[in-house]
Amino acid sequence: MFTGARSVLQGKALKKFEDPNAWHNLFRTQVYARIDEESYRPLFDDKMGAPNASVSLLVGMMILKEAYGWSDHQLFEQCSFNLLVRSALGLTNLDDKVPADSTYYLFRKRVYEHREKTGEDLLQETFAGITSGQITDFEVNGDSIRMDSVLLGSNVAYYSRYEVVHRTLARFYGSLGPQVLAMLADEQTKQLEQICGADAQKTVYRSTSKDIQERLETLGILAYKVLLACKGHAPQEPYDLLERVFNEHYKLEGNQQVQLRAREEISSESVQSPDDPDCTYRHKGDQKVKGYSVNVTETSSDQPLNLITDARVEKANVSDVRFVEPAIEACRSVTGQRVEKVYADGAYQSPENDATCQGIDMVFTGMQGPIPRYDIQRNGQQLLVSDTQTGETWIAQKAKKTKRSKQDRYYIITKDKKRVYFGPSAIRSALLRKQLQERPLAELHKRNNVEATVFQLVWHLRNKKSKYRTLFKQQMWANCRCLWVNFVRIVNYVTETLRKTSRSLKKGLQNGWNFEKRVPYSLPAAILPSKNMALFFWGFYIKIPA
Predict the structure, then answer these.
(1) pTM of the predicted model, to two decimals?
(2) In which band, very low, low, confident or very high, does the pLDDT at 491 lie, cut at 50, 70 and 90?
(3) What is the DSSP string of 145-156?
(4) Which homologous superfamily is 139-155+284-368+439-514 in?
């Protein structure tokens, strides 16, 4: 009786606290209450047992942590002493208990292990379920979408090639038990002890390039011998990581001789840090990143409310064209609507996506690569080719197919009797450039807002560097952040809608309108707790008829 907000608040403070449109109350209804706990049932069984806190509360805590960029310590402090945060999480009484630290960490661990075991991302499903309900209730139009990506650095230090091999080998050695260590030769054990006792960074700083080359060769030979001796006996995860690093940096030649690979042979897919084997390297413009690429897709209607429908994380070296198909499918699934138009920049344009995008108006705001010399246009069944430098125009002739080239190609013969060929890719790119030039600027500018969404996504990150490691943890972070961005948009939308409604009702009241029969401003169903209710505006109760 004396543990609710009324026991400690009064007057304006209590009125604000109980305002149904206050952020904490809206979070409880628009996010917390939409969390489907049933989907998390596979995490618990008769042996493991259910958590001593509700799944909705634990997921809600994860969302609020990323919403405000809190540390774990700050999260538990806010949940214990901040009345608004407690109210948002359904802890309406002062004596409602906050989950123990161990309960929260164990839940996150189980979600992660479930993903590793089954490939099922429960938090991704939660994001889709919450967003789908919000889109339905607020009548968000999803027939047009826009997307953009951002490179995100992993929470790892930048290691040189030597440091990666050195630290991976040292990590593997540290994972070995006494029984496995006994399988190694005395010389190998001594070498491993020396490696673990040395600081890789200081070794690189003090050594010449020739010295590092020799040390790398020595590490490779040692790693190969250790892998052979410990196969089938060492812990699987450290062994697999060392084997992967060895294959990326070394190769076997002749009579099983270990040879260091040339630097040019090292792929961007290679391990950048043993602390985060998932992250990869990418050089994009003036940006060099060891981490991940995050793609955000949102609705793009002329309505005042647009919501993020998909947040997808891949390794940094994954091209943007790989995001198009899953983003469109996710939008269809979440909104339940057909996607008719997609706004994206030139990095998403690729022939690979033509089949997926068939019947969809793809609005690209640019094209990658330099502008070609020859301009190509279709004139019925003919191809007209124009030289942008000389102004000459030709009707392209169809080339015969050969063993080397079985694709349909066209060619022109220039004044100096040279043949210039145009394949399907060149023709496709030229026609797309023509479409881009004919698009009105207002249509091309519709994609710009998604850049602001990406900016909001990484708001709490310094220099776009994540606080987490591994691909799945980055995905969990992205889902929580996007849920919060959507929620903030809903709060702003509800606030603005009610403000406009209040203004219209006040004006109508002054003009003597009959509110029993006429409502001058349409309210979405999600704003109204029931179909037939009374709203309090400007000192008057106004009945909204069903």
Answers:
(1) 0.86
(2) very high
(3) EEEEEEEEE-SS
(4) Ribonuclease H-like superfamily/Ribonuclease H (3.30.420.10)
